[in-house]
Design goal:
Blueprint: H1 15-20, H2 23-30, E1 37-41, H3 44-51, H4 81-93, E2 98-101, H5 124-133, H6 135-142, E3 159-164, E4 173-179, E5 182-188, H7 196-200, H8 202-217, E6 226-234, E7 237-244, H9 257-261, E8 271-272, H10 292-298, H11 304-319
Parallel strand pairs: 5-8
Antiparallel strand pairs: 1-3, 2-3, 4-5, 4-6, 6-7
Helix pairs in contact: 5-11
Length: 323
């Protein structure tokens, strides 16, 4: 495996590096080793609707928006029939269930609002509700270059990414840190759980990740420094899930960015994982598990998000013939 020598220079993230990590920038190059996906351009009106306060499903959606929903009904009168039709068609092309995200982030922090606490979506309403409820998505839409010297969005075009739904086993998700086209760190993705299978097969997993990188990734991305998210489906079968910026904007998991920016650990410590039940870390998404919106709901303030979530769930039950 290719490993680099230690350096002490602080890493500066450029605007172009952030753009290079946008999904549509890299997907075509690596689509053979990634999950089948569809890319849908979003117009400015829909992006603005996502950024508006409150949650109201667009007019014409299956749940409907009755005239007496609330005093803010006007916000719900915006309709995006063309986008809804395209999304519905793409979902069917991908087998009927998808995982949504925008250029960079997925709404994983908003899973609390989804029926069944899952990011698996079967229609436009479920996707919209997740996107509208996500702080991660809002950050992408409002401050995508916050950590860059040039923070202006310029002519940035946003896209909705629909990824074919794949059942992912959390124990086999890993994050790979690459500097100067050399792996300097591999981390278990789910730092809050001990998995015996990782401990048992650690050497095998590390070797397979290194082989995957050398064969499919090495020198093929735009930049020499980047972070990979990968999924090991089975022995010698790895999927590329995402490519992230190399810098503090990306979660370093079991590493520290000061360590990574200085060149990473020694080779014998390159793969880090939960090696015993007592060494787990707090779930980083726990702070999103009971959001401010639910607190407001409990106090009788701003019930729109909960109402729309219930509408989506009722529609799902009607399709399934349940009550």
């Amino acid at each position: 495996m290719r490993l680099r020598s230690l350096i002490t220079m602080e890493h500066c993230i450029s605007r172009q590096h952030i753009l290079n990590c946008s999904f549509s920038s890299w997907y075509n190059c690596f689509r053979q080793i990634s999950i089948q996906s569809k890319i849908i351009p979003l117009d400015d009106d829909f992006v603005e609707h996502l950024l508006e306060d409150g949650i109201y499903l667009p007019d014409g959606s299956e749940s409907g928006n009755s005239s007496d929903d609330s005093e803010n009904t006007d916000k719900a009168k915006k309709a995006f029939p063309e986008l809804q039709s395209i999304v519905g068609s793409k979902i069917q092309d991908l087998g009927g269930s998808v995982f949504p995200k925008l250029n960079w982030s997925s709404p994983k922090d908003a899973v609390w609002i989804a029926a069944g606490n899952t990011l698996r979506c079967n229609n436009f309403n479920e996707i919209f509700l997740l996107l509208k409820s996500s702080d991660f998505v809002t950050h992408d839409l409002s401050m995508p270059f916050e950590i860059c010297e040039d923070q202006s969005k310029g002519s940035l075009k946003y896209e909705l990414i629909l990824r074919k739904w794949v059942e992912v086993i959390p124990s086999m998700e890993f994050r790979v840190f690459v500097k100067d086209n050399e792996i300097i760190g591999i981390s278990q993705r789910d730092t809050s759980t001990y998995y015996d299978t990782i401990v048992t097969h650690a050497e095998e997993i590390e070797r397979e990740i290194e082989d995957f990188f050398d064969k499919h990734i090495y020198s093929k991305f735009f930049d020499p420094d980047f972070v990979l998210d990968i999924y090991r489906r089975r022995e010698n079968d790895i999927l590329l899930i995402d490519i992230n910026p190399f810098g503090r904007v990306t979660d370093s998991l079991f590493f520290d960015w000061s360590e990574l920016l200085a060149g990473g650990p020694h080779q014998e410590d390159i793969f880090r994982y939960v090696d015993s039940p007592g060494h787990v870390q707090p779930n980083p998404y726990m702070s999103y598990g009971y959001p401010k919106d639910c607190m407001e709901f409990a106090s009788g303030v701003d019930t729109a998000k909960i109402v729309e979530a219930l509408k989506v769930e009722n529609l799902k039950q009607e399709r399934n013939g349940t009550t």
